Amino acid sequence: MNIAAVDYDGLIPNNVALGQDERVKRALEKWHPGYINWWNDMGPEGFQESLVYLRTAISVDPKGWAKFDYVRMPDYRWGVLLAPAQEGRTIPFGRHKGEPAWQDVPGEYRAMLRRLIVIQGDTEPASVEQQRYLGKTAPSLYDMRNLFQVNVEEGRHLWAMVYLLQKYFGTDGREEAEALLQRRSGDADTPRMLGAFNEKTPDWLSFFMFTFFTDRDGKMQLEALAQSGFDPLSRTCRFMLTEEAHHMFVGETGVTRVIQRTCEAMKEACITDPYDIAKIRKLGVIDLPTIQKKANLHFSLTLDLFGNEISTNAANAFHSGIKGRYREDRLKDDHQLEGATYPVLSLVDGKIENVEAPALSALNMRLRDDYVVDCNAGVGRWNKVIESFGIPFQIKLPNVAFHRHIGEFSSIKADVDGNMLSDGEWTTKRSDYLPSDSDKDFIESLMQPQFEPNKFASWIAPPKVGIDNKPGEFEYVKIA
Ligand SMILES: [Fe+2]
Ligand SMILES: [Fe+2]
Asked: Which residues have beta carbons under 5 A from ligand 2 (an ion)?
């Protein structure tokens, strides 16, 4: 069989020859009904019967892997898809550097690998749960379709991690696969594992910020795991990244279109001051300072996902050859980092300063730095839009010490420029930096559904091009 092609004959589409792997095939078929129940309970509410113009992977060839068609979401073909094996691949970093990549789980690293796979797996259904009510307030059918595309692909990412658990981790893998269907985002008793995945995604600006900032953390984690010496994990993550690219696109263009619409409305109304908030809001668009506050919130929550700046777990995962750095294969050093150092932003006598730390311990910090660079590129493109209207405003990412709950800065209060604040100052200034209740109420008031083809809610501009090059009037979702 051509490795790029996907076998669609059985219950579970795959390119891993499941048909010849009775044990794993049966385990996954047993897990399947629980997954479908989870999807029906926790997936997009109110649209399970609607026909959605979705892409489904039919190959893992980077060119032309997707096929577009109308699908009811519960009938989506969630499959197990791995990028093609690279012949003769070796472990690219750590103490086993240069040894043949593992095709099976190395016993000594079993627990570490399982933990990383479970944590990654847990984020996938969490985001579907967080986004389940958004369909009802979609600003257009185009956006609704994009939301559902992201949702079914996060569902497939769960399948990707569950396949690894079922295939390589025996009984405890099976138990972990079950537990992934039991936890619930935001649940007091059985929450999802990471903080940002227990927050609400209450409105569409949050959704776009989430896909821009938080899915981008997903991208960074997948990039680091795609370097893994455990080859099945590497291949799994490499294919997931092709889907993740669409999630980034939805977030970046979503915010761009919100900004675009705000600037257009300001121009039409001859408003030049971006802080003339009451007047701008009367136009039915979201003022730029409020967009900035949303960015502050989602950026800071997402930074927490990178964990402690200094981390023994991160050092061990790298040293063992399990989790690499962002684009490890393009870095020019010894890929072992023993004796190397890396500058880490730290709190020194009440000031934020760079301190050289052992590079192995500082890998979370390094991945976070790479993440911030990646975010900034997107923010720069947002600012180009504002600039093209001549409006004196720039979106800026807040200082990494701002509004943190994990790591070096979780014990202090800082403003968006990294200046230390007393608790009192923080309480007074908080709503200058983060959405206030009245900001939230205003945004919520704009969340009126627009379900007519080629129409868009007041606060967002139409996209430049349609999905799959469809024309504007195309009906992306046939609501049942
Ligand atoms: Fe994902
Ligand atoms: Fe994603």
From this structure: 215, 218, 247
What are the residue boundaries of the structural domains of the chain, listed by start? 26-478
Centre of ligand 1 to C-alpha 109, Å, is 24
> What are the tens digits of pLDDT across the range 14-23?
999 999 999 9
Instruction: Count Cβ atoms within 10 A of the Cβ of residue 177 and give its class: 0-12 exposed, 13-18 middle, 19 or more buried.
Output: buried
Rounded mean pLDDT, 412-436: 96
User: Which ligand places an atom closest to the C-alpha of 159?
Assistant: 1
Q: Which long-range CB contacts under 8 A does 6-11 form with residues at least 24 apart?
A: 6/57, 6/58, 6/59, 6/60, 6/79, 6/81, 8/58, 8/77, 8/79
In the reported structure, the alpha carbon of residue 158 is separated from the centroid of ligand 1 by a whole-number distance in angstroms of 8
- CA 433–ligand 2 middle distance (angstroms): 26
Distance 392 CA to ligand 2 centre (A): 33
Is it true that domain 26-478 has CATH number 1.10.620.20? yes
Any idea which ligand is nearest the CA of 248? 2
Ligand of minimum distance to the alpha carbon of 247: 2
What is the number of the ligand closest to the CA of 126? Answer: 1
What is the distance in A from the centroid of ligand 1 to the CA of 342? 29
Write phi, then psi, for 106 (nearest 5 degrees).
-70, 120
- Inform me whether the pLDDT recorded for 2 exceeds 60: no
The one-letter amino acid at 357: A
Could you give the angle at the alpha carbon of 132 between the alpha carbons of 129 and 134, nearest 5°? 140
Q: Read off the pLDDT of each residue in 357-378 and give the average, rounded to a whole number.
A: 98
pLDDT, position 3: 55
Instruction: Tell me the average pLDDT across 337-359.
Output: 94
Closest-approaching ligand to the CA atom of 123: 1
What CA–CA distance (Å, rounded) separates 227 from 158? 19
The predicted-structure confidence for 204-247, as pLDDT tens digits, reads as follows 999 999 999 999 999 999 999 999 999 999 999 999 999 999 99
- DSSP symbols for 324-379: --TTGGG--S-SS-TT-EEEEEEEETTEEEEEEEETTTTHHHHHHHHHHHHHHHHH
What residues are neighbours of ligand 1 (ion), with CB under 5 Å? 124, 154, 157
Contact (CB, 8 A) for 209 and 251: yes
| pLDDT given at position 1 | 45
Q: How far is the CA of 241 from the centre of ligand 1 (A)?
A: 8
CB 318 within 8 A of CB 93: yes
Ligand nearest to the CA of 160: 1
